[in-house]
Specification:
mainly alpha, MetI-like fold, 73% helix, 319 residues, 12 helices
Length: 319
């Protein structure tokens, strides 16, 4: 397991390096955006550009870029947005909003998804199972931004239950109840996909486990269907389901690019969209690193978690 973990981490670092190199080269092929007229502040950006080797050969620029990150963790300053402010400090200020909206959606969606999946498995091939399975396929097939527009129209615009977007006056009180209510449309839009995906996996795994020979043996020993399901079936089914839940919790940091932009959530996702539209190279590179690292790291944790959940599984073990 240790060798497998080290191998996966080294592979993650190599993959991250390749992706960052490709993004750096491709974005440098675009024309350099002009610096906005900001009086004395323009000198700060010009100084940073000189430190990062702007105007020098591409390999020299990339070497300075990596050196500043490795030695100083310096991702530069904002040029087209949040001018002269540290890119990483701005990202850290935005991160709590992304974490909260995704954390709320997961905490609400996980028990609902598990409940639907378990109920569908117990009612396999009955009308309840068909209804849940059809709804699951529908919600998985439809993109999350479609839910966002429907929630905005019916619950925010027609019913007036929630604000269409988060008011800027409430973004300072992240943990307040009013902020939670303002986030509800985004939470629901993100939660639909999680509920559907978790219900599908739970239903598939539990249905397979319930047909196992050991379940018949448990029933012949005098256990009721509920006892056999709770003690044996769910424990075996959770070997596959739990890593998925763990991956969801790790992935909350990455957030949702489109949902955050639609509901004006001042998080990392909307910052990434703005960095692409405004061609702010420093923000784009920092956020690309952030999203790529979270995606690769969550994959490693999910794979390793199988071995901890079920001791019979040994990743990378030789036969």
């Amino acid at each position: 397991m240790v060798k497998y973990t080290i191998k996966r981490i080294l592979l993650m670092i190599f993959t991250l390096f390749v992706i960052m190199t490709m993004c750096f080269v491709l974005i440098k092929l675009l024309p350099l955006p002009a610096v906005k007229e900001m009086g004395k502040d323009i000198n700060i950006i010009l100084m940073k550009r000189e430190q990062m080797g702007y105007g020098k050969p591409l390999l020299v620029q990339y070497g300075l870029f990596l050196k500043n990150i490795i030695t100083k963790w310096d991702w530069g300053v904002g040029e087209q947005m949040y001018e002269t402010l540290s890119v990483w400090s701005v990202l850290m200020q935005k991160l709590p909003y992304t974490i909260m909206v995704n954390l709320y959606s997961i905490l609400i969606a996980i028990p609902i998804g598990l409940a639907f999946g378990i109920y569908a498995a117990l009612k396999k091939n009955k009308w309840q199972d068909h209804v849940i399975s059809t709804a699951v396929m529908l919600f998985i097939s439809v993109p999350s931004y479609v839910y966002a527009f429907l929630v905005q129209y019916f619950l925010c615009f027609k019913a007036g239950l929630f604000p269409i977007t988060i008011p800027s006056s409430e973004t300072t009180s992240l943990l307040s109840f009013r902020m939670f209510i303002s986030m509800m449309p985004a939470i629901m839009s993100l939660g639909f996909g999680v509920i559907a995906g978790l219900a599908r996996y739970t239903r598939a795994e539990l249905s397979e486990v319930l047909t196992g020979d050991y379940m018949l043996l448990a029933r012949t020993k005098g256990l009721t269907k509920a006892q056999a399901t709770a003690r044996h079936a769910m424990r075996n089914a959770m070997v596959v389901i739990l890593p998925m839940i763990i991956g969801e919790f790790i992935g909350i940091i990455s957030g949702s690019l489109i949902i955050e932009k639609i509901f004006a959530i001042p998080g990392v996702g909307s910052l990434y969209i703005s960095s692409i539209n405004l061609r702010d190279y420093n923000f784009f590179m920092a956020l690309t690193f952030f999203y790529t690292f979270i995606g690769l790291f969550s994959g490693i944790v999910m794979d390793i978690s199988y071995g901890f959940i079920d001791p019979r599984i040994r990743m990378g073990a030789k036969k």
